[in-house]
Amino acid sequence: MIPLNAASVLPDDGTAGTLVGRVWLPSGGGPAVVAVWEDGVYDLTARFPTVSMLAEEADPVGAIREVPVTRISDLDSILSNTPPDSRDLGKPWLLPPIDLQVLKAAGVTFAVSMLERVIEERAVGNPSAAAEIRAEMVRLVGDDLSKLKPSSPQAMRLKEVLIEQQAWSQYLEVGIGPDAEVFTKAPVLSSVGTGMDAGLHPKSAWNNPEPEVVLAVSSRGKIVGAALGNDVNLRDFEGRSALLLSKAKDNNASCAIGPLLRLFDRTFSLDDIRKMDIAMNVTGNDGFILDAHSSMGKISRDPEDLVAQTLGLAHQYPDGFVLFLGTMFAPVKDRDIPGQGFTHKRDDIVTIKSAKLGTLVNRMRPSDECEHWTFGLTALMKNLAARRHL
Q: Which of 182, 197, 280, 390 is most exposed by smallest CB count within 10 Å?
């Protein structure tokens, strides 16, 4: 894992925004909710035992200002102690910035990724067949559907044409139809943060990162802030069958969120997310380098629409939820064999960055070799109770 420090992780405007997260305190024996300010990292846990409780406040930013705080350490020290290989268990380290929120994800929200999902389905998990199928799909639907509004008359006419040509797919249904694909990415508390290993199922031979914006949403449906995320994806598993989505998406350490949660305030708003560019770099020990980006300006469904399709009278989230918004990243660059496309190798370093949200860095490892997830809901409740925070 590459060394981490505040300069490499924070947003371009540093601590000008309202940045919150979680830190493991070895002296106190558990997770602390923290605010990151210019002069250090401060403990908010006495007032807000969980980030989800902070998100439920009518004015989370104002509530933080009223909390008596205790300084834990400087951010550099905490970040440098976060990677698992060199971690000193007697010192604090950074955790993912969310806790009790349900981990949800929206899929097929960009035209480019929609076509890649169709290609995965038709290739039946075989990367060597992808190039030919990709050319066929572009011939049928073109390579720029960014102006096609889901469920619009134009989208429905396109659907009819594709059905006639026997090219319709369940991925096109959620890409241009009325209903978004929203699924549960991983169990509560199972995500990993920046500086940690991210997991790939050891049986997967065709997979990729998915750089995304992750919204933090209260139980009332109010979007309170955002972080970066890597919705790690197994293209071979899902390509074989959409019913393998849970195995393709939900494995140990396969949900990365970080580095911090930036709350909406005078420096940051939903409009910043709507026009946000996300850069990604993959660097391998084999010398392979992949640079890519995802532009939120090309998303097919507005973030507020995706939130509205996640929460409502038919589905509630008492502790709130976080929502991956999807990606336009389509990993078609060949890594080894021409026509085989991209797939991860052990120890790839994935760096996801945006000006307003900072940098999420993870090393890729087989899921069974990543740190095992042992601190669940029961452990958290017992821990907070023992520390008299409940």
A: 390
pLDDT digits 0-9 by tens, 162-218: 676 666 677 777 777 788 889 999 999 999 999 999 999 999 998 999 999 999 999
Amino acid at 275: K
- Asked whether the predicted pLDDT for residue 25 surpasses 70, the reply is yes
CB 119 within 8 A of CB 137: yes
Q: Is 70 exposed, middle or buried (0-12, 13-18, 19+ CB in 10 A)?
A: exposed
- The Cα 300–Cα 313 span in angstroms is 24
Q: What are the strands, taking DSSP E only, across the chain?
A: 18-25, 30-37, 40-43, 70-73, 93-95, 102-107, 181-186, 197-200, 207-208, 211-217, 223-231, 233-234, 255-263, 277-283, 289-295, 321-324, 349-354, 358-366
Please tell me the distance from the alpha carbon of residue 68 to that of residue 46, in angstroms, as a whole number: 8
pLDDT digits (tens, 9 = 90+) for 59-115: 999 999 998 899 999 999 999 999 999 999 999 999 999 999 999 999 878 765 666
CB atoms within 10 A of CB 71: 12
Query: Where do we find the tokens 């770099």?
Result: 281
Identify which of 7, 9, 367, 19 has the alpha carbon closest to the alpha carbon of residue 190. 367
Tokens representing 139? 């011939």
Distance CA 315, CA 303 (A): 18
At a CB cut-off of 8 Å and minimum separation 6, what does 228 contact?
211, 212, 213, 214, 257, 258, 259, 278, 352, 353, 354, 357, 358, 359, 360
Q: Which residues contact 72 (CB under 8 A, 6 or more apart)?
A: 23, 25, 32, 34, 40, 41, 42, 43, 78, 92
Residues in CB range of 177: below 8 A, 6 or more apart: 150, 151, 155, 159
pTM of the model: 0.89
Q: Is 127 within 8 Å of 235 (Cβ atoms)? A: yes
Confidence (pLDDT) at 138: 65
In this structure, the chain runs to a length of 390
289: left (phi over 0), alpha (psi -120 to 50) or beta: beta
- CB atoms near residue 7 (< 10 Å): 11
